[in-house]
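ok so heres the complex, two chains, lmk if somethin looks off
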Amino acid sequence: MELETIQECDGGVTAAQGFVAGGLYCGIRKAKKDIALVRSTKPARTAGVFTLNKVVAAPLLVDKLQLQKSNLCSAIVVNSGNANACTGEQGMKDAWTMVDMTANALHLPREQVLVSSTGVIGQYLPIEKVIEGIRELSTKLSIDGNKDAAEAIMTTDLFSKECAVRFKSGSSVITVGGMAKGSGMIAPNMATMLAFVTTDAAIAPSALQAALNAANSHSFNCISVDGDMSTNDMVLVLANGLAKNEEIRQNTLAFQQFLTALEYVLIKLAKMIVRDGEGATKFVEIIVQGARSEEEAMQAARSVANSNLVKTALHGADANWGRILAAVGYSGIEFNPANVSISFNGLPVFKPNYEIVLDEEKAKEALSQENITVLINLNQGSAEAHFWTCDLTKEYVNINASYRS
Amino acid sequence: MELETIQECDGGVTAAQGFVAGGLYCGIRKAKKDIALVRSTKPARTAGVFTLNKVVAAPLLVDKLQLQKSNLCSAIVVNSGNANACTGEQGMKDAWTMVDMTANALHLPREQVLVSSTGVIGQYLPIEKVIEGIRELSTKLSIDGNKDAAEAIMTTDLFSKECAVRFKSGSSVITVGGMAKGSGMIAPNMATMLAFVTTDAAIAPSALQAALNAANSHSFNCISVDGDMSTNDMVLVLANGLAKNEEIRQNTLAFQQFLTALEYVLIKLAKMIVRDGEGATKFVEIIVQGARSEEEAMQAARSVANSNLVKTALHGADANWGRILAAVGYSGIEFNPANVSISFNGLPVFKPNYEIVLDEEKAKEALSQENITVLINLNQGSAEAHFWTCDLTKEYVNINASYRS
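and the predicted structre for the whole thing:
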């Protein structure tokens, strides 16, 4: 796909026309912003993807019901510090309260509000604080509120994550922008990650959902920090049509263009999540080439990306390519190990017919970089997949041994 | 199954009649014993299970060929420090050389020798040193050589692993004993683990293999240290018949008795591997009850046992039961989270209908123990499974960031 016409721009979730946002501290976390609001001045077409975990947090259950009723959304309310997951009836009640309070404060129909939560599982929301937070925040939304919103959805994140792009579609200019959070419990099929994307494109609902599905499968479904899949993951895209372009439909050039822009934003946000991986010191791209299908390439790449042994070896700049081959070996795909080649940042270490060409010194140098590309060629087809992960460090253990404390 | 009649005894792999063993340093590792031999004075019926990894080390390929030719085995030669995996043609040649040198030195038919390796992947064996080691070791086998053999198969293991039991079968006394190694790259469907078990039972070949399959599925397939499955795993059982019992056949009481004894030995060895898990400070038993099938119970238990988030929380004595429920949630089984209950060492923390009964202080105390039992009841059936794992620590990262160095 061509990216030439797509330009990055500032503004994150408020870059597109007609969106305002904000974030502030309401008392869930310890002295950090913990509630965010995003609002579209015009009801927006909405598409969403949600965690595949069988344990689904209350806000996701509420949003699925909301989207069944109406695919128009005017506001998203998000809290951090508490996932409102495994909280039963009370959790559902609290999620609906967040919806209702937001609808009241912004004078919106109830069905046009979506809700999201992230943080500790299994504790009830301090709902009075949340209500007070929504009330206050609803009066402070602005076009400059994107940064506060992006900060307010962070949990163990070390930096906030925003991206926006702009492109020409006919005589209109379309903007796609978003924010995300996530740094642990990151696994394929999403993760403890939330992403909220806004656009002023006019786009048919089915085309919007199709674009999100496709872009998501090449971005958030291709990242892993620890292989744990969360109960709260979601990606929402709101399209309010204010760019006044001709409505985008599937199987058109305009659709391809929109998809490219959306994919650009989601991939950039996904990579930021990996870079911010809990305790991570290295950003690792796993590329599997020469596979018989994209699915098999992805399966192999995911297996390597989730291997603790691979991730600790990369942390230690140890050129232990045997662990990489072993991880492909237990990925479940059929392949002949004798055909495989492996390289680190362009340096071949293993060639077909088990030819070991490892230059320890050069390999150590390659693996000491902050950015590492592991290229695995199965040499049995033409399909490929990319997957992004990070190293596994003592700091990861530190963070997660006392997350709730 | 009844264990009353089964008594533990000393002797490990030489506890049963007619077995001698030994181990010594031949120069593969740094100043540590690295080659072991086990010999049966009478050719023994042999059963084996091997890794499911698609990348299979040379010695396993050789053993599979050997067992096709003859299921009688008189000697097993094992080296540590080098896995002879991903070594292609040269690796196959080296594995056959180990077989031939052992056959020559002990005056055995070539087809009665099995070979095994463990250690670093992707380096050629220093075969001259190995040959010299076999020559020397073959003159030093004894009934007291079990401890040296058990030490010589260790890699990152901190202690050697042996177990033996004795029981009456009719008028005969049958002994089953064995040794194992493993402390990292431990995952379901075996792991970087080797186990060699000897018995003087007279048993039909098909019954021996059936007993091994059953015992293995309740022992080595129920442990996990890091979820990585190795290229070298194998369990071998040799039965030489010197106990002179009536030959054991399947579907008999004697078979049940033998299976119970074998399972006892394998479970004990498997638990030792977990206790010796790289960097581990805690031994964790995951019990899933109330499942619709044993397979589903196992699937859920495995998912919890392999979760980095669960393992770091247990390390930090953090009662983060939400991560446990989330790991069941992405295990792939169907269940209703509202029915689930969870307890730590008998202390309930989560009850059906999302009732959170967590007493933080008591939970902290329970999780500060060295032995932790996590009981998860799905309350939707009567099947259960046990799975053993350890906590994930900074020391695990330490060990594996520089394993080859």
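quick notes: Chain A touches chain B through 71 residues (CB under 8 Å). thats all i got rn
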